[in-house]
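Suppose a colleague, Dr. K., hands you the sequence of a protein chain of 71 amino acids and asks what its three-dimensional shape might be. Before reaching for any lab equipment, you can write down a predicted structure in C-alpha cell form. Begin with the sequence itself:
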Amino acid sequence: SQRYALRSCSTTHRPIRERERTPDPRCTDALQLAVALEAHNLGVDVLVAADKTVAGIASFEGMAVINPELP
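The predicted structure, expressed as C-alpha cells, is then:
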C-alpha cells in the first residue's frame, strides 16, 4: 500500500494528501478516501464514489469502484 503525506486542511481546500502517480484529492475527498482505505484494510473491497480522483486512487489501492452516476 502507498504511503501518504498528511498536510493541514484549511477552508481554502488545500490538498491534505500527496501521492506520486495521481492528482491530490481535496480536503473532503481525502477524508472520504482515508476512511475507504482503512475500511479496505479491514476487508471492504468496494467503494461507491463519483469523484474521479477518489475513484482512481481507490482503484490504484486495489478496491473495486462503483460510480453511481454511470448506468
